[in-house]
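Shipment paperwork, digital attachment
Item: protein structure file
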Amino acid sequence: MNFGFLLFPDLEELDLVGPWEIINVWRKYSNGPSCLTVSERKGEIVCAKGLKLIADYTFEDCPVLDYLLIPGGQGRKTEMHNQKLLDFVKQQSNNCRQIASVCTGAFILHSAGLLRNKQATTHWSALEELRALNDVRVDERRFVRTENVWTAAGVSAGIDMALAIIAEEAGEETAGEVRLYAEYYPDNKRYGTAHTNEKAPAYVK
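Attachment content:
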């Protein structure tokens, strides 16, 4: 099976790299799917914080995907109106066991017609924008699933979502083994008072 990660300019690095690490641990240690990256065209992709990536495939030569993950970031403001990218997402979604977004990648999912009348979440700073779409039921959790469509909250939440997808597809024990390898056990410590911001999502408060 293939797990695809969508690349586009100005994507948020951890949206992509966090789940990439988790899914690749599944692949390496527990027979998980092969991981690949795909972008609209060949060449270098510069991410929001300057990380430079080169995709394995373009939309034209990408194999059929069993899973697809869409990151967010400032670049989504352009890509959510990129018909070629939206057509690719819609086409691949017809074959995907699970399709997911991280952070503001939710808006790409929506533009592709995959979030309408579903529960979803996104980065806390974009929750009101998501609510304004009217045909999405916003749920301020770390990640949300409706049928085979998953959305994660901001940035690091993609790691939690990736583990949940593994648990769904390969079982709790496999997800636990991946989590141990990654040593991903957030300590719930809060720093300062930022979490009291009125715009902070419900799960933080």
